[in-house]
Description:
The protein is mainly α. It has one domain (11-88). Helices cover 31% and strands 6% of the residues.
Amino acid sequence: xxxxxxxxxxxxxxxxxxxxxxxxxxxxxxxxxxxxxxxxxxxxxxxxxxxxxxxxxxxxxxxxxxxxxxxxxxxxxxxxxxxxxxxxxxxxxxxxxxx
Length: 99
């Protein structure tokens, strides 16, 4: 089975934070950055606190192999992201170190 490349959608960080993450009241990791282009990044990776592989970045996407489950998460996460954008106005443009 081929590895699906990460599309930086942030769903993995929204379904449950990694061991280094902390879940917000909205159910999304507090270290997740939402970009204007719809991509995401991890603050911990950007600041060099953890390595990308420590939080699963670069390991590929397993959720997209299960389209029904992925689409359910995507819809739920989309609603959470709308709340986050309205609450925190997190827009940092494009960054490296994304999820």
